[in-house]
Amino acid sequence: MPAGTRVRWAVVSATSVALVATGCGSSGDGGSGGGSSDTSKTFTYQSSEPQNPLQPANANETGGGRIVQNLFKGLADYDPSSGKLRMQVAESIDTSDAQTYNVTLKSGWTFHDGTPVTAKSFVDAWNWAANVGNNQINSSWFGDIEGYKDVHPESGSPTTDKMSGLTVQDDTHFTIKLYNKVSYFPYKLGYVAFSPLPEGFFKDPAGYGQKPVGNGPYQFVSWDHNSQVVTKTFANYQGVDKPKNGGVVFKMYTTAEAAYADLQSNNLDVMDQVPPSALANYKNDLGDRAIDAPQGAIQNVGFTLYQPEWQGANTAKVRQGLSMAIDRDTITKTVLQGSRKSATAWVAEGVEGYKSGTCGDFCTYNPDKAKQLIQEGGGVPGNAVKITYNADGGHKEWVDAVCNSIRQATGVNCSGDPKTDFKTARAAITGHQINGMFRTGWVQDYPLNANFLADVYRTGAASNDTGYSSPEFDKLSTEADQAASIQDTATGYQKAEEQLATDMPAIPLWYYRTNSGYSTNVQNVTFDSFGNPAWTQVEVKG
Amino acid sequence: MGRYVARRLLQMIPVFLGTVTIIFFMTRMLPGDPAAAMWGDKAADPAQLAAFKHQMGLDVSKWQQYLNYMGDLFTGDFGTTMGGRKVTDVIGEAFPVTIQLALLAFAFELVVGVAIGLFAGLRRGKAFDKSTLVLTLLLISIPVPVLGFIFQNVFAIQLGWVKPTVQAQHMTFDQLILPAVVLGSISLAYVARLTRTSIAENLKADYMRTAVAKGLPRRKVIGTHLLRNSMIPVVTFLGTDLGALMGGAIVTEGIFNVQGVGNALYHAIGRSEGATVSGFVVVLVLVFLFASLLVDLLYAVLDPRIRYA
């Protein structure tokens, strides 16, 4: 069969999966109950081939990211059950002014090669990662630290290789000085980019990227490209989450369908997310081994506020009207097969500072009110609107459903505007080449509401795709950043979030969920709000 | 013969250069910025993006990039992926997987296809022949993904006879057999039908009557005279099919998690990784050129009337 024909069939494959999947009813013997477990046995997890070397500040795609997370452990991380910040290598991270942080390390931590984890391990690692010349994808994460602009100038070469804001006092103490007050900075420190690096790394970063040496619960064993990354439990791990298993084997899959087939036949123990074709049946297939958990991610449709048609105070009413014309509950139940939950705010559920109902009536389906608001706001320009989205992400179905809902409720001629793939859509959105609405969303970097708000809606923020600029929102969020405690920051951002209901720069649609499952070989599998399993808590049956 | 091969090899040079050039510019004209795509959903930090582009040699004109690429290519340097791995390493991982799978599929369609075609052709119009026609028609009409999912579900998930997916670098026969059968099944139908028709036609040829009349044993009549002469259309088909198999099969590879050429190309195109796509295509062009040369040479072996000078 010619190659061309083979490619053509890819288009129909998704529907044929659904047909076949309904015919399969294999279900395991349940077995999430408390059987005996063997702490020396490893389990397999669905992964994809890491695209970058396994360096902490260079892993932003899921494949490499979750492997690095298990090999390294920073000052703090997030409790998988509550999402709250918990100390790991740090004994404490103290501040009196939200600008200078004093870090005290616990003693006894070592890297997998036996060398101790000291204050210098952190400071050197951060200086190296922030340096623009080292080409780390997440280098901008260090932007809060004083001296960042010297190692990471906007153009030209760095003038120094050390950030002035980082000072080592002794082996277990160092200070971090920031450019501005950022009360929730410790929350950022839970991100894997802030991991320490052993001394050997700096002599051969590329080599360590292939054979990483970290300080996390699992140590690297081997990386067979396109096949698997094998890890084993690190005996001298000092963290609060001691592994209950012997290691994680990350098996590489190209499609969720293949992983699901393996999971059903116990060739794979825990998977990421069941394929869309299995959503309708996975709970039947897997019984009590099926997982349905909330995720810290939200789907929105944004407006091109940088276009003249969408400026002016009155246009907010049009946007609010469009939001009320979307029947979220029906779409999440039918088109999305219960894999999402209707949004009532701009911050995802389960995140510190989440407050339901901030969007209020504007996120409740009400066709009459929708029509009225759109009229009051002067109507949609040309009575037609397009939603730009990437055609390679499985978004067509819900975009069409949202448009149908808008059309039926208000008579506004809404249609989808698919771009071939993700990067084409991104180029059109960030290049301001569109006019109307576009698919957007946010996956948490850390489970705090500031991340969903400051990074997306503040004037000039890197991910502010709508071009939203509200002096009121900016003022409230700056105030929140300078609050005395994380609690106060979260409350402050809740106030800023209310401004979004008034201006409606983006319509919140729904929150993501983790729809997954596990094999009969393992038990005690739970997922956190990042959509990752609580790795160390997984028990392998004896 | 030697001169013919030399001429063919020389002809490959312009074909090769032309294809590489076309592919280079086609992949570089794909919309979207491959460097910015490294940041995924998040906006790229402008300073880091610029530094990254400079390191990857993407901050010069397309023509300069082309000259650099061709220059490197002739020294055996296929460039690096966006993640910094050597493209030759990536090719070196994907091709062995595809080659093993392709050879297994090829052997399956060749042996089973020719055998079925031979028996059907010899017993033209009988029950075996008729059922062959119906079954091969059925195979041709079922889309590959449907066949793939059915086989995977029945033989791997329900019955548990074989493994449902393939693990690259740890491949075993019970992992590869399912995708190989699925991949080979459609070509198998064509091979069977081509062989059958060719056999049935040649049965009436003069040389067959002569062979039978001079009292040759039946095995020799069929093996040496009939089958050999009937293989020419089949070999033509098999030659191009081998090339197609080497190019990988995106859908089948996706279903069975085969991390082969098709899959690697698919993802490289998705990420607009020009160097990776070009690298694979360069190798594929060579595979196709040599496969077609091999087919032409096989003609002469099969049919003594065909001579190359």
TrEMBL record, chain A:
Compositionally biased spans, kind Gly residues: 25-36
Record GO cellular component, one term: ATP-binding cassette (ABC) transporter complex
Secretion signal, residue range per the UniProt entry: none
Segments of skewed composition (Polar residues): 41-61
Name of one Pfam family that matches: SBP_bac_5
UniProt domain Solute-binding protein family: residue ranges: 85-462
GO molecular function: peptide transmembrane transporter activity
GO biological process: peptide transport
Region of interest (Disordered), ranges: 24-62
Stated name of the protein: Peptide ABC transporter substrate-binding protein
Organism: Kitasatospora phosalacinea
From TrEMBL, chain B:
Highest taxon of source: Bacteria
Topology within the bilayer: Multi-pass membrane protein
Taxonomic lineage of the native organism: Bacteria, Bacillati, Actinomycetota, Actinomycetes, Kitasatosporales
Cited SUPFAM superfamilies: MetI-like (SSF161098)
Entries under PROSITE patterns matching the protein: ABC_TM1
UniProt protein name: ABC transporter permease
Domain ABC transmembrane type-1, residue spans: 95-299
GO terms of biological process kind: transmembrane transport
